[in-house]
Amino acid sequence: MLAYIVRRLLYAVPILIGINLITFVLFFVVNTPDDMARMHLGMKHVTPEAIAEWKAARGYDKPLLYNEARDGLQRFTDTIFFEKSVRLFAFQFGRSDAGRDIGYDIYQRMWPSLAIAVPVLVFGLLANITAALLLVFFRATYVDTLGVVLLVIMMSVSSLFYIIAGQYVIGKLLHLVPISGYDGGWNALKFIVLPVCIAVLYGLGSGARWYRTLFLEEAGKDYVRTARAKGLSERVVLFRHVLRNALIPILTGVVVILPLLFMGSLVLESFFGIPGLGSYTIDAIRAQDFAIVRAMVFLGSVLYILGLLLTDISYTLVDPRVRIS
Amino acid sequence: MPAKPWGWMLARWLWLAMLLPLTACSERPWNNPYPAAEDDQNILYASFRERPKHLDPARSYSSNEYLFIAQIYEPPLQYHYLKRPYTLVPLTAAAMPQARYYDAQGREIPPAEARDGSRPVAYTVYEIRIRPGIRYQPHPAFARDASGRYLYHDLDPQRLRGIHTLADFPETDTRELVAADYVYQIKRLAHPRLFSPIFGIMREYIVGLDELAARLREADREMRAAGGTYLDLTRFPLAGVEVVDRYTYRIKVRGKYPQLLYWLAMPFFAPMPPEADRFYSQPGMAEKNITLDWYPVGTGPYMLTVNDPNRRMVLERNPNFHGERYPEEGEPEDRAAGLLVDAGRPLPFIDKVVFSLEKEDIPYWNKFLQGYYDTSGITSDSFDQAIRVSGEGEVALSEAMQAKGIRLVTAVNTSIFYLGFNMLDPVVGGYGERQRKLRRAISIALDFEEYLSIFANGRGIPAQGPIPPGIFGHRQGRAGINPYVYEWRDGRPVRKSIGEARRLLAEAGYAGGVDQETGRPLVLYFDVTAMGPDDKARLEWYRKQFQKLDIQLVIRSTDYNRFQDKIRNGNAQIFIWGWNADYPDPENFLFLLYGPNGKVKHHGENAANYANPEFDRLFEQMKTMDNGPRRQALIDRMVDIVRRDAPWVWAFHPKGYTLYHAWYHNVKPNLMANNVLKYRRVDPQLRQRLRAEWNRPVLWPLGLAGLLLVLLVLPAWWSYLRRIRRPALVSGRA
């Protein structure tokens, strides 16, 4: 197991270098260092000298990937790509192009993201499983048919609709919670209730349908028929046998997204004014702050790789038949 | 314990649902986003859309940054809050500085001779005396121990370990504002690592600023090589700016530059105590985000006490504020509008201003209607809900807004949007009669009255020239119309007919949209930034306007960076651009058409690359003149030249609409002043009462939803019970 984990971690290094390179190329295809300087210096009265000085102060005055003016290895190391990338592997994100400490900002912003993402995961999982079990219990009845139709409708509606309708009905018409905003500590509760409910509701359509499929597949297996033949009640069959076995793909599906919970939700955070990492990334893209974009893409990639590794490990834990080598 | 019957459970839930509304009797609304402790406090609630990039007065140049720092930093001058046209008055200065003129030999020139241009002015000197007794806000940079040594100017990593924000420094102190602080800040404009946006302009005028920048660049390089972090600007003299005495300093500019007074009302020229610069420059501070760009230090009515731009920023009353009084005079209608009720009362009125991050329009608008923001603009989405336009085109608040006591103020912004022709382009550019007629024909065809009606809900006025209303040089009425595009009919300007435009087009050699020389259809290119769904309709409108003349318009859409490149390199043909006034002087608009300010050749702000020697000559005369009939005459000639040449289609001056609640007072749009929060007043008791009234929780839909859920679940439950009680085999069938 340990050898497997080490091997997987070593595989991650070239993947991360590749991702970093792609991010770098994509970013600089759209934004030149001059564009970045102009964006940061403002639109009025920007002189070429100021642009040159801004670039020099931040190391953007070097060639992007290959420095012809240098010799040997320095042709590759004395470049923007190398200088901006190498520290990432030590998780030193450095400072944003606007001068802020990125590591500190990420630390500050991951808590609001988690405050939304964790309840959404937990309550979403419960809601999806409950709805799916209900439909499986009433399979081939009008409840199942209507339920599936409803779920298809729910998954076809844009998340923006849920957000705007939720804010309108719950916040504006019923005056039950603040429409948007955020606060620290326990005061955050009143701000996260609505986004969490909306996110759970929005995820219900696709989540419950998928889980229903998993449960139905299990419900048709021989051991379930045997359990019924033993005279077990349908409730016992579903909860003790079907649910337990169907949980394997559900759990592994959850494990893979666990590390990504830190990354936040782009749309939800923006509409509810939640200062999480999702809005941090979007703001950085808008401001052409390459340092933040690069750090967030790198962090996202690391967390995704970590999630996949955890998934593999969790397989061995929940299904004794699986062995990794 | 026996299981309770489901009927009993249902009854219990219904009973709970009925009780819920009773809990709503609590006065405090559930949806109040602010802490209960703030309920009846003298606080103003506002918002910001994005994190301000800079709070350093040498770098800030955006309205969203001025929103904060203009309340904190105090330059020597300010704009009178109520008077129009915009008038400069002293802020920290004891009096308005008077210009003294000198020739190249250093002999003083009498003002009258300098103004009428009879003797050439080599230098102008402004001497500014500030009022004694003004003190800075409490700040750790000023804190000293018993022996007089600064407590926090030599921090080592060990002492910095527990420091995360400015509030973590337990000791603060203040000191008196002195003239040297203003001089220090002017030197900062030349600092090699600050990239002040106005350095490029000021180096042309302030004597010695360019040389100072070169010396600072060199010194900074040496200092950094030696591992230093603080460049002590007090060691570097600036020839054109000097301290005369403790409260007086002098600025020497090349030639005449009366616009300097306007700059002296902007935060660029606010004081900066060297102690603060030194404090923030210590090693390890920037890594903790403790910088001058993040924590301002000023003498103004407010100080920034919470800077969490991810969530909220808070300004609180500066306990050391020197005091100022509400103006006692204004425009004639100000008294009737209640704007002089507070005349003579000490400022500021509001104790605290809370800015919350609000990125989207819809939540902001809804929270404004609930009373959680004190003021709001109007987006296109909410326009119909807020505004009612009568048949005569008069604008009034909708009944719903009036019922809430909401009030409306409008003002034409001191800005202009225009459709520019690249004058370097072989088709639309150039100064021949053919090109002029083509541009004039297009100017007539582009119906910006229709544009404003469709896309801006009428919020704007069609522009007749480059100078917006409210700026000296703008002419109203018949004298102010662009005679090449409009006619004066029935007491108002009427756009010339499309037939007239076609005639001009034919005279230009493009009759019926066909180039008479080549026989090819006239195809023009409109360069725009990447378009979203909203822009599509707008661009289609432009295409249709050109179609009126049978001209094919090709939209070349690109991202903002590439668009900027095209403009800089002169590769755009027709484009949309805009300008917002820095100060209320016609020079700030006419310089956009000044030849030596051309974008391609001189990297200036003249995006159309317009260059007319006569216009340039008049501009050079006009820019240093005092406002008066002679200056107006020159401006009239210049405006006539650019109307005739038509390098821009003068599109429109946008009109700002602001809504504010009944508890918010002293609201008068001042498009030049940014330090207006000190004049505003709120009535927190009225706000609290109305908030409670408007936001009572409505709970019956929840009860109804619960009931519906029960009704839905009941048949399923019944079906479930029937299923588990059903025998596996029915007797008699086996």
Residues in β-strands, percent of chain A:
under 5%
Q: Class by helix and strand content of chain B?
A: alpha+beta
The outline of chain A comes out as globular
Q: Kindly, what is the distance between the CA atoms of the first and last residues of chain B, rounded to a whole number of angstroms? A: 39 Å
CATH topology tier name of the domain at 415-656 in chain B: Dipeptide-binding Protein, domain 3
* Straight-line N-to-C gap of chain A: 7 Å
**CATH C-level name of the largest domain in chain A:** Mainly Alpha
Largest sheet of chain A: none
By CATH, the architecture of the largest domain in chain A is named: Orthogonal Bundle
The major β-sheet of chain B equals: 8 strands, mixed
Structure overview:
The complex is a heterodimer of chains A (325) and B (734). With 325 residues, chain A is mainly alpha-helical. Chain A contains 14 helices and no strands. By secondary structure, chain B is α+β, with helices and mostly antiparallel strands. Among the domains of chain B are: 3-25 and 698-733; 73-281, Alpha-Beta Complex (Dipeptide-binding Protein, domain 1); 415-656, Dipeptide-binding Protein, Domain 3 (Dipeptide-binding Protein, domain 3). In chain B, strands 14, 17, 18, 19, 22, 23, 24 and 25 form an 8-stranded mixed sheet that branches. Classes of the chains: A mainly alpha (325), B alpha+beta (734).
